[in-house]
Specification:
Blueprint (H helix, E strand, L loop, with lengths): L8 H7 L8 E3 L2 E5 L2 H13 L6 E4 L3 E4 L6 E4 L7 E5 L4 H9 L10
Antiparallel strand pairs: 1-2, 2-6, 3-4, 5-6
Length: about 110
């Protein structure tokens, strides 16, 4: 599929109008509110990239596992946030920082 550009889920969320302030993370794990819009974007992501298996490559070397074809949701402990999708390894700014600092090639601890 030469010349085909793929978008990450993070980029699709932003391009679809999800506010960056509504996207939370813990290291590379991304958390977004469960809404009609976020659910539709995730479903579009799955359809666009023809994800048929519950496990598929993410960022080229990790794997997401979404039973039932959708990420798991949890009740946020932050008042007023409600249900959040938990999407492992999908927070692009984390990976961009890793690549910028070349941390994949350097040892983290001495």
């Amino acid at each position: 599929m030469e010349g085909v550009t793929t978008k990450t889920l993070y980029r699709m969320l932003l391009d679809s109008g999800i506010n960056e302030c509504d996207i939370h993370n813990h290291y590379s794990d991304m958390y977004i509110p469960v809404t009609e819009a976020s659910t539709a974007i995730i479903k579009a992501y799955v359809d666009t990239y023809q994800i048929k298996e519950p496990t598929f490559p993410c960022r080229g070397y990790r794997y997401l596992h979404w039973p039932r074809g959708m990420p798991e949701a949890f009740q946020s402990q932050i008042p007023g946030e409600g249900l959040m999708y938990d999407i492992p390894f999908a927070y692009d700014p984390y990976w961009n920082s890793i690549l910028k600092h070349n941390w994949l090639e350097k040892p983290h601890h001495k």
